[in-house]
Amino acid sequence: MGMFQTRQPRKFRRVSIYTDERRDKLDRLVRDVRREMGELPSDERSIEPDHFKGKFSQYIPRTQRNIDSGRSRLTWPIAIIAIIVLIFLWHYLQTGHVHL
Fold it and tell me: Which of 7, 55, 74, 81 is 20 to 30 A from 49 via CA?
């Protein structure tokens, strides 16, 4: 009596088209065995801030251009001093005398 039986839904089966989990697992197993045999260095990574220093900026073209150009980091202080001098000059032109 197929009319009164409810069909069971199909089981979800995810097929990944971009990665092969079995191959990744096998590669990880081979890497672990080689590490235990001493063919590969140990997988201990330092978590110190020096380990990550400069890693992000090497992949950003704008920052890499600034690093390669050798531009000095004194541009902001020079700009602030120039603004202050311009304010004093504007004040002198408006009033005719200098107040410090």
Answer: 74
Residues 6+ apart with CB under 8 A from 88: 98
CA distance 23 to 7: 35
Q: How far is CA 20 from CA 17, 25, 33, 42, in A?
A: 8, 9, 20, 25
* pLDDT digits 0-9 by tens, 42-90: 665 545 556 666 677 677 777 777 777 766 666 788 899 999 999 999 9
